[in-house]
Fold this protein.
Amino acid sequence: MTSVDSSGLSVSGRLRPWDLLHAGLAVALLFGVWSVGGLEVSTGKVSTLEAINGSTVLLPCTYSSCIGIKNLYFNWHYDDNGTMIKLCEAVIPIEGVEPRVFVYHERVEFVGSSKSNNISILLWNITFEDQGNYLCFARNEKEKFRNHTAIYTLLVVDQIKEVDKSLTVIIVSVLGGVIGLSIIFMVIKGLVVHFLLNDGEKNKECLVSSGNDNTENGHSGAKADNKGTPKA
């Protein structure tokens, strides 16, 4: 089926196969760009912290977006056995503008900065009741309100367990011993080679000197015989 446009040219009412292919590729490309540029929040490579009761800990969180941010909303929640307790929240209007943070916990302090994409918080004087999961959430209006959440786990203990270093000490001792023996062996080898070279030079000197003595003695004997021969 065809139709006529305003210019009088006929236009096919059906899309051609390659047109469908091009459209599919365009959609896939747009989806790929959307996936790459999507908002992400992260609590770092280590998402678990073990801290001593009564100490102050940093709960880290950073955000990233390849296409930038606009009215980025973020908050922190504490998971209290399924009940979400909001700790703080704020909106970052645009990149580089510091947010006005609303804190809802007396021992929480916001220490982040939009200049470094940092939305971390401090938790003061932690207790055993503070142990659990902390959720860092962000939503970006520029990405049609795309959002992401990262979880950070806090473990509260009486004291930090000391790491058993006996195996490390043994390995270091063995390596040190091997290196020490290698050095001693090289020194002894050098001394032996040195003494052998000196002995070889002395032997050469002795052989040369003894050869000279024999030659001199032989000439002397010949002269003596000549002198002792009676005249005819």
Observations:
- The longest strand covers residues 146-157.
